[in-house]
Design a protein that fits this description.
Blueprint lengths: L6 H18 L6 H8 L3 H7 L3 H24 L5 H18 L3 H13 L2 H31 L8 H21 L4 H12 L7
Helix pairs in contact: 1-4, 2-3, 4-5, 4-7, 5-7, 5-8, 5-9, 6-8, 7-8
Amino acid sequence: MARPVDLERRREIALQALEVLRTQGLQQATMSGLAKALGLKRPTLYFYFPSIPDLFLALVEIHREEEVAWVAERLAGKTHPIDAMLAFLRAEHDFVRERGLDDFMLLMASFWATGSPDDRARFRKRVLRDLLPARQLFTALLMQGVAEGRIRPIDAEGLVDVVFCLQDGILVQGGLRDLDADRVFSTFESLLLPLRIDA
């Protein structure tokens, strides 16, 4: 009978490994090197993570769980779809900044760029698991807002795609340069507000 995985220990190892990856970079990382840097025997590391892509996907999972709770808390009470979308953008940005995850976002981009086709497919599937329901929810909220006369007619799916592209762009650009995110948010808000119809 296989021994059960200690999920707390797995999380702890993953977060410690992230610190190593932050220092070494993803291209230089090996399971042997990670085990040594973490003070673990290789079989122990392999027990928790069969490969670096598995480790990386676990890190994505850890951060996504925290991020979903963080964002949900900041969306509470936002009854207008436009307000909810703006709060969503700010919350995603604030989560990354306050958790110091800028370099993690760059590691994710590196993982995507250098991973095998199978690794990229697994990563894509994991990210879409959260993205698609959120996209569908915001699209439905916008369509409902249009139907109720609270939002001017708009291509809801197109606007949601713009919001998610802007979110990703802010995170990547923020990791690459000194981006004034508040200015970006204010500019985007000025573009969205005319869509709002207040009764």
